[in-house]
């Protein structure tokens, strides 16, 4: 395996590639995985996913890029377990939205979410020179909320009944971290 773009205690991180399409398609369509994802509403197939990844691979990487995606997995194993990204990066306001999905449910609850948050906060603040990183999470995604709190995200507000999941409207919780807070941790 080529050198990782980022590393944290137990995980490697690299750019997603077209050969990840089969894993992403299967992982993201698992109802347990997609329940709390904004992209999880509609079916898609491996060809479409590969085309998406090929288009990304061809996109020029320049300063001012508004979106960074990374695939991560366990050190010592080439198999990916999830994706993370900083999205809507604003070079003007120096903020970005963080997202994560661990596509193997057997890996949930082992602290990987918190570890990925730590790596992406460090990357966002110390490499991309961001000032603030925020996220949106369904209020009933208790595992996610606890993981994000443990990583240092603070509550910033709630959009009431913003999301429709499994027949019910649920609140969308906004959370964020400022660089100064993160440095003081
Ligand atoms: C949300 C997600 C990223 C969290 O990562 P994770 O590695 O599973 O979470 P962590 O192990 O870092 O932390 C989980 C926390 O929830 C707690 N937890 C574990 N199982 C739980 C459960 N069934 N219900 C509520 N909390 C639970 C853990 O005790 C831990 O809290 P603690 O640190 O206070 O002990 C991951 O579960 C995931 O990808 N889920 C599917 C997709 C998704 O929801 N993505 C996020 C959209 S915003």
What descriptors fit this protein?
6 helices; Aminopeptidase; alpha+beta; 185 residues; 8 strands; binds coenzyme A
How many discrete structural domains?
1
CATH topology: Aminopeptidase
Head-to-tail CA distance between termini = 33 Å
Low-confidence stretches: none
**Binned strand content:** 25-35%
Order of helices and strands: EEHHHEEEHEHEEH
**Rg of Cα set:** 16 Å
CATH top level label: Alpha Beta
> How many beta-strand segments?
8
Task: Explain how this protein is built.
The chain is of the alpha+beta class and 185 residues long. The protein has a single domain (6-184), classed as 3-Layer(aba) Sandwich (Aminopeptidase), CATH 3.40.630.30. Helices cover 31% and strands 34% of the residues. Strands 1-2-3-4-5-6-8-7 form an eight-stranded mixed β-sheet, with helices on both faces. Helix 4 (112-127) packs across helix 5 (142-151). The chain is globular, with a radius of gyration of 16 Å. It starts with 5 loop residues before the first strand and ends with a helix. The structure holds coenzyme A. The site of coenzyme A has 21 residues, from strand 5, helix 4 and helix 5.
